[in-house]
Design goal:
The complex is a heterodimer of chains A (315) and B (272).
Chain A (H helix, E strand, L loop, with lengths): L3 E2 H15 L3 E5 L3 H4 L2 H6 L4 E3 L4 H13 L3 E7 H7 L1 H9 L6 E5 L17 H6 L5 E3 L4 H13 L4 E4 L4 E2 L15 E4 L4 E5 L3 H14 L4 E5 L2 E3 L3 H11 L1 E9 L4 H12 L3 E7 L9 H7 L4 H12 L7
Parallel strand pairs in A: 2-3, 2-4, 4-5, 5-7, 6-7, 10-11, 10-13, 13-14
Antiparallel strand pairs in A: 1-8, 6-12, 9-11
Helix pairs in contact in A: 1-8, 4-6, 9-13, 10-11
Chain B lengths: L1 H21 L4 H6 L1 H11 L14 E4 L6 H10 L39 H15 L5 E6 L6 H12 L5 E7 L2 E2 L2 E2 H4 L5 H7 L3 E6 L3 H13 L5 E6 L22 H13 L4
Parallel strand pairs in B: 1-2, 2-3, 3-7, 6-7
Antiparallel strand pairs in B: 4-5
Helix pairs in contact in B: 1-3, 1-4, 1-10, 3-4, 3-9, 5-6
The chains are: A alpha/beta (315), B alpha/beta (272).
C-alpha cells in the first residue's frame, strides 16, 4: 500500500462511524478540504457545521452541542486547534468535561513547506497540561482510523493529531488500539525507542540500523501521550535501562518530558530525547526538515549510540 | 406582575447578602440583571427544579459569569437547592463557585466566567435542540462590555447563518465595565445596529421595567427564521443607591453597614 496521510484515516473513519453513531457531528473552520472532512459533509450535511475562519466559535459551539448529547469533532489544523482556541477548549470543554473531540491535521513539521505558521510544535505539550484532556497521535492510516473510533467511544475531551504528509502503512487493518496503552512492536534488551505519531517510522528505520549493529532494541508506539502508559515506561526502564524518545514536537513538554518525569520519580534509567530542540523550523520538504533539525532515523541512531556508549544500565 | 416585582426584590436581597457574606464578588452586574433573570425564571423559561436534567427544558447561559449570584439566588429560590446554601458562595467545598461551574451547581446549564465564550455555546445548544426536535429555547445573558470580545461576533454570524430562532441573546447594557464607562474604554454602541447588521432581530427594552421585559420576551417568541437580540438598558447596581452607576461596585463586597443599608433600601422601596 502506498503511503497515506493520517488525516485521510480520520476523514474516512469519521464518515464510516457516523453511519451508526447518529450523534457524531463535524465542525469545520473553512479547511474541510485539507482536513479531509468533505466526504463527511457530503454524506451528512445535517451534521456538518462550517463556522468559517472562526476557531474559537467552533470550540464553544461544539461544547454547546455536547451538552445536547452530540459527539462533536472540531476539525482544523493543529496550530489553531491547540492555540487559537485553547482557552475555549480549556474552560468551555475540559473544565466541564464535555464530550468534544479536537481533531487536527497538520501536526508537527508535516505541513513542511507551509512554514512555521502552520507547523504545530507546541500543541501536544499544551494539551498535556490541561486537566481532563486526552492526547493521541496515531502513527499511520490504519491507526488513525482505529484511534478515531476509540475517541468517538470515549466519553470526554480528546485531542487527536494527524499528519498532512503521507506516512507508510505500518499496521494491519484489523490491528486493535486502546487509548492509554502503548504498543510494543519489537523486543530487545539494550535500549527502548519510544515514538509517537509520524516519528514511529523514523524509529522503525533507526531500530533496523541499530539491530544491524548488534544492538537489541525494544520499539514502542506510544500513540497516547496523555494519559501516558506509565507501566510500559517503567517496564522499559526495568528491561533496558536506556530510553530514547522520538517525537515530531518541541522536545519540551511532549513525549520526552512525560517519559523523563516517570524516570525521574522512579530514580532510574537513562534518557535521550529526539525532537525539535526548542526552536522554530522553516519552510521545506518534511523529510529534509527532519534531517536538518535532527529528527530523522540517523539522528535517532546517533542519540541511541551516545547513550549506549555511556555504558551501564544506570546513570 | 406584583409577584414578579416581589421576586426581584427578594433576589436582590439575596445577591447583596451573599456577596456580603462571601466578602467578595460582583454586585453591580448581578443587580443590573436581576429583573431580567426574575422574568426568565418565573415567567419565560420552562424548567423543572425537581428534574434539573429534563431534556426539553429551556437553557440559560450566564455568559457574564462573574455576576453568578443572580443565578445562584434564583436557583435556590426556585428550589434547586436550599436557600441556606447561598451563604457558602465562594467558600471551599461549596457548590457555588466564584464563577459558574455546571458540574457543581444543580440547574446550571453551562460553565462560564471567561467573557466572550457563552454565545458560541448557546449556538451549539440551539442547533442541538433543533436537531433533537426539542422545543427548548436557549437564552444567553451577555454584558455590554463583554461584546468587545471578538468571539461574540463569530458566534453572532453563525447564529444567523443557521437561522436559530430558538436562541435569544440578552445584552445587559449597564454601560460600565471594570475600568470605567464602556464608551471610554472601548465604545460598543450602536449595539442595536451592530446586531441587526449581523442578521439578528433586535428588540430594545427597559431592563428594569417588568412589563416591558415580559412583552419583549413575548415578541421574541414570534420571530421566526432568525435569532433575537434583546438590548436591555439597565443600571449597574440597580436598587442600591450608593451602588447605582458607580464603577467600583463592579467587583466589591459591601461591609456590614452597607449591607444593612442596601437591604433596607431594597425591602423598603418597590424594587423599581
Amino acid at each position: 500500500m502506498k503511503p497515506i496521510p493520517t488525516r485521510d484515516g480520520f476523514g474516512d473513519a469519521i464518515t464510516e462511524l457516523a453511519i451508526t453513531n447518529k450523534e457524531i457531528y463535524v465542525i469545520d473552520c473553512d479547511i474541510s478540504k485539507s482536513c479531509k472532512t468533505t466526504k463527511f459533509a457530503k454524506a451528512f450535511p445535517d451534521r456538518h457545521i462550517n463556522v468559517g475562519i472562526a476557531e474559537q466559535n467552533a470550540a464553544g459551539l461544539a461544547a454547546g452541542l455536547a451538552t445536547m448529547g452530540k459527539v462533536p469533532f472540531v476539525s482544523t489544523y493543529a496550530v489553531f486547534g491547540s492555540m487559537r482556541m485553547l482557552e475555549q477548549v480549556r474552560t468551555s470543554i475540559c473544565y466541564p468535561q464535555l464530550n468534544v473531540k479536537i481533531a487536527c491535521s497538520h501536526g508537527g513539521l508535516t505541513p513542511g513547506n507551509d512554514g512555521v505558521t502552520h507547523q504545530a510544535i507546541e500543541d501536544m505539550g499544551i494539551y498535556r497540561t490541561v486537566p481532563g484532556m486526552t492526547v493521541v497521535m496515531p502513527a499511520d492510516y490504519n491507526a488513525a482510523k482505529k484511534l478515531t473510533a476509540r475517541a468517538a467511544e470515549y466519553e470526554g475531551p480528546v485531542y487527536l493529531r494527524f499528519t498532512r504528509d503521507p506516512l507508510p502503512i505500518y499496521y494491519a487493518e484489523d490491528e486493535d488500539f486502546e487509548i492509554g496503552k502503548g504498543k510494543i512492536l519489537k523486543e530487545g534488551g539494550d535500549l527502548t525507542l519510544i515514538a509517537i505519531g509520524d516519528m514511529l517510522h523514523q524509529a522503525v528505520a533507526a531500530a533496523e540500523i541499530l539491530e544491524q549493529r548488534g544492538v537489541g532494541v525494544r520499539l514502542v508506539d506510544m500513540h497516547t501521550l496523555k494519559p501516558l502508559d506509565e507501566a510500559l515506561v517503567l517496564d522499559s526502564i526495568e528491561k533496558t535501562g536506556k530510553i530514547v524518545t522520538v517525537e515530531d514536537h518541541n522536545f519540551l513538554n511532549g513525549l520526552g518530558s512525560a517519559v523523563a518525569e516517570v524516570m525521574a520519580e522512579r530514580g532510574r534509567g537513562m534518557l535521550r530525547r529526539v525532537g525539535l530542540r526548542d526552536r522554530y523550523a522553516e519552510s521545506g520538504d518534511y523529510s529534509l526538515l527532519l534531517e536538518k533539525y535532527g529528527m530523522d532515523s540517523r539522528s535517532i541512531v546517533a542519540k541511541a549510540e551516545e547513550l549506549l556508549n555511556l555504558g551501564g544500565k544506570e546513570a | 406582575m406584583e409577584m414578579l416585582q416581589k421576586k426581584a426584590q427578594e433576589l436582590r436581597c439575596h445577591i447583596v447578602s451573599m456577596i456580603h457574606q462571601a466578602k467578595s464578588g460582583h454586585p453591580g452586574g448581578a443587580l443590573s440583571a436581576a429583573d431580567l433573570v426574575t422574568a426568565l425564571y418565573w415567567s419565560e423559561m420552562d424548567v423543572r427544579p425537581q428534574e434539573p436534567a429534563w431534556n426539553e427544558r429551556d437553557r440559560l447561559i450566564l455568559s457574564k459569569g462573574h455576576t453568578c449570584p443572580v443565578i445562584y439566588a434564583a436557583l435556590a429560590m426556585k428550589g434547586y437547592y436550599d436557600l441556606s446554601v447561598l451563604a457558602t458562595l465562594r467558600k471551599m467545598g461549596s457548590i457555588l463557585q466564584g464563577h459558574p461551574d455546571m458540574k457543581k451547581t444543580p440547574g446550571l446549564d453551562m460553565t462560564s466566567g471567561s467573557l466572550g465564550q457563552g454565545l458560541s455555546v448557546g449556538v451549539g445548544m440551539a442547533l442541538g435542540a433543533r436537531a433533537n426536535g426539542w422545543k427548548s429555547r436557549v437564552y444567553v445573558i451577555l454584558g455590554d462590555g463583554e461584546i468587545q470580545e471578538g468571539q461574540i461576533w463569530e458566534a453572532a454570524m453563525s447564529a444567523s447563518k443557521y437561522q436559530l430562532d430558538n436562541l435569544v441573546a440578552i445584552i445587559d447594557v449597564n454601560q460600565l465595565q471594570v475600568d470605567g464607562y464602556c464608551s471610554d474604554i472601548m465604545p460598543v454602541e450602536p449595539i442595536d445596529k451592530k446586531w441587526e447588521a449581523f442578521g439578528w432581530e433586535v428588540i430594545c427594552a427597559d431592563g428594569h421595567d417588568m412589563k416591558d421585559i415580559l412583552n419583549t420576551f413575548a415578541k421574541a417568541r414570534e420571530i421566526k427564521g432568525k435569532p433575537v437580540c434583546i438590548v436591555a438598558r439597565t443600571v449597574k447596581g440597580k436598587g442600591v443607591d450608593y451602588m447605582e452607576g458607580i464603577c467600583d461596585w463592579h467587583g466589591m463586597a459591601p461591609n456590614d453597614e452597607q449591607c444593612q443599608s442596601a437591604l433596607c433600601q431594597i425591602r423598603g422601596g418597590d424594587a423599581q
